[in-house]
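My main concern about presentation is that the manuscript never shows what a single data entry looks like. An entry of this sort, consisting of the sequence and the corresponding backbone structure tokens, reads as follows:
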Amino acid sequence: MGKVRGVRFSDDEEKLIEEFLRKNTLLDFSTLAKVAILEFIKRPRLALIPVKTERKESGNGRTIPRTN
């Protein structure tokens, strides 16, 4: 079974979501959220900046990812 996550919406956002779901009865909120998130991950339309991980030298001179 997958992980359950929560999202908080403003009152205006909630109204838009409810209106969309009333007009598109084939979808429920959970399906809408999954489709929207997966679509965004696969085809983002924003120029995002990747997170850089700090690196440290190991004893043998190799660079390894920092875990903390």
